[in-house]
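[User] Once you have settled down, look closely at the record that follows, and write a paragraph about the fold.
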Amino acid sequence: MSLVADDSRPRSRAQTTTLAAGVALLRPREWLKNVFVLAPLVFSGAFLEPLAVRHASLAFLLFCIAASAVYVLNDLHDVAEDRAHPVKSRRRPLASGALAPRQAVVLLIALYVLLALGCLWLPRTGLVVVSYVLLNVAHTYVLKTQPVVDVFSIALGFVLRVYAGAEAIAVPVSAWMFVTTLCLALYLAAIKRRQEFNWRDGTGRAVLAQYTPALLERFAQLAATGALVFYSLFVTEARPALVPTVPLVLFGLFRYQWLVEVRAAGESPSEALLGDWQLVLTVLGWLGMCAWGIGRDVL
């Protein structure tokens, strides 16, 4: 009896370790980026409609599945490169050896099946999600080695999130929202590339040889300025009730830049946000003020 118990303990620990590695491979912390899917729900005022909330929530879930599928494919492709990275070699399951490539392939197939089923439920949203997946396949194999194109392909993923959210609740994406989202996403993407220079002097990713830190900083500042200007014009012209949110946006940009410069954050925007309570409170305050201001206009 004791022999059976002794055999089961290691097996149970191994199963738990494999499960934890599988969850880590999905990168659930990065799902935070998918809140962009909910932007049309908030800014259209449709968050007061139960059906719109359900459809937007499903679109958010679809993007979480799609994003995880992209991360699994990316990790399978980049496993050798990740093993040379001082952090990724420990944190990423394939690079660390915590998960075998064949297990990752099985997980990837399961994610694609779930994605296909979800796309059948919301076909118009599904077309945008499929476009996002195809964009990221192209990014993994081709686009991420092309300077400037790689930054725009990352940013376009955020724009597609917004379009998916709009399709889910059948509202148009305003030109203001499109340009503001694109600029903010370009800022985050440029900062991500800039921070990658902190590891091994920029030798960890091939495309970094085509950049300089100063150039990426200029890209980031130009995009941040564009995001602020277009957002301010948007709320002034279309949503005057949201003008008080502009100082919060300014503070958020300043705080994020401080995290980048002082704490070397920014390679992962999600980790930078979740790791700073002031930034979390700023985002929550901004969301609350947006919901209150738009809800008041709608009612």
Q: What stands out?
A: The chain is about 75% helix and 0% strand.
